[in-house]
Amino acid sequence: MASEEQQAKAEAIRDFAAKGNLEEIDKMVKENLEDVIWWINEGSSRGNTALQLAAMWGHVDCCQALLAAGADKDKQSNVSEQRRVHPPPPAPPPPPPP
Questions:
Q1: Alpha-carbon span 90 to 75, nearest angstrom
Q2: What are the percentages of helix, strand and coil residues in the chain, rounded to 5?
Q3: Higher-confidence position of 17 and 37
Q4: Average pLDDT for residues 38-49, to the nearest whole number?
């Protein structure tokens, strides 16, 4: 089992990924080459990895950095059913002419 410090680092990189903080992700990767792959691929309590969180929030630049650092693109979360994104409802019809 990972130490509390390792868990905290994994949580930090997930937080940076979810918020789109590319600068902090790059800093963690450059300063901790030996441990960073574990942090990147360690899931949260729901099993979400840093890559999944960055993707969920649309932070493409963070996704690219995490993949370059060794993120596992095939790792699945603990969520048993996939979430569906529904399109917005159609716009209301225009008002009738006067």
A1: 35
A2: 50, 0, 50
A3: 17
A4: 90
